[in-house]
Amino acid sequence: EVQLVESGGGWVQPGRSLRLSCSASGFTFGSYAMHWVRQVPGKGLEWVSSISWDSGGMGYMDSVRGRFTISRDNAKNSLYLQMNSLRPEDTALYYCARGPGLAVAKGYFDFWGRGTLVTVSS
Amino acid sequence: EIVLTQSPGTLSLSPGERATLSCRASQTISSNYLAWYQQKPGQAPRLLIYGASSRATGIPDRFSGSGSGTDFTLTISSLEPEDFAVYFCQQYGNYLMYTFGQGTKVEI
Question: Which residue numbers in chain A have pLDDT < 50?
Fold first, then answer.
């Protein structure tokens, strides 16, 4: 059974940093692109970032480019999102999601974790 | 950025009825790279449809997707009680600029 479990969320002041993690199991992690998607509770979904199976391809939404860094460790079956210079508008539930194949080009999400909540507030 | 507009915002129906949800794109979605997700309260989204019309693994055949270019439709042929949820469309034709619609709530 595919499982994705996010961690690392919490409350942080504006301008500070946070690192999210996603632990994967039930599939060959290194054979899939992975993504982060966020959702303000009660609102819509927003794609944040993607990384290919070998970290050779990655991308970010405009508002986080230069502040967030996606990475992965295939030996540890883990995905990460380093979030720096956080802003109140980054407040959301952050989901880890699996892509259907190796590359980030097939940018839909076939399995999702339950999410970790990030709150940015003074 | 491709903007996706879903309509209606809320669909009020009864079990057994047919639901038709619309997703319109601000520009042509290449290769019909359009997906649909279902989200229930307190749960993560679940993939229903990808490539505009291909059902994901385990999705009942009462769910079907259609459309091309800028106009796409998700149809639920006969609503079951567990189908009452929010539905989102998402385009992935614009490489690494993926966007979602604002959602359609299907309520009893």
Answer: none
